[in-house]
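note to self — DONT lose this again. spent like an hour looking for the file last time. sequence + predicted structure for the chain T wanted, 238 res
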Amino acid sequence: MTHPEEPRNFYGRIKGKTLKPAQKRYLDEDLHALRPAGVGREENPDRHMVAPRSFFGDDRPLWLEVGFGGGEHLVHQCQRHPERGFIGCEPYINGVAMLLGKIRQAGVANLRIYPWDVRDLFDVLPDGCLAGAYLLYPDPWPKSRHHRRRFVTPGYLDPLARVMQPGARLHVATDIPDYVRQTLQEVPPAGFDCRTPDPADWRTPWDGWLSTRYEQKALREGRRPHYLTFRRNEVPAR
């Protein structure tokens, strides 16, 4: 399916406070070796497909986290599942620097980072190569006129569904009730079955969940987390 309207970013700012000297050092010393080869537009302008096994040198299951924030959940999953390979995409450079510090501390080796738009990754991944994906506390774009900039819209969900294998799980966490509404409305038509249709299911996170700093902020401010799980079905996406 084509989407003729001009592409819009689903994320907001790409830089926050001035980076600390240590964070600048992490970016200078560590990021290049952790970038998945062939994803960036500057190195692959013709958008040739890449072989997923090139990321880790083997055929391990690949999982994606879209917008990893400070990276605590991503590192936790890497530690919990050393048999998997994880790819984190995040355009917010402060978050990338925080994740690099956590990687140094934890010593995980099954993680690759693309510090920009996840759509660049979707462009070059072959069909059905991801075993799972996380979308955790995405930018809510609360104003009605901005809802089309949310990740849970066809322009993002269709390419995500294409690169996920049948049976792959998509986990979504948000503290915004209207984001829940739109997620339940938009994700199934992209090729997913909802595994948490009952509102009572939304209160309990999936196995292995680690509460993020964004979730802790939401709880402090009185917003309730919602946890949704979808399964990539075997019916072709729209």
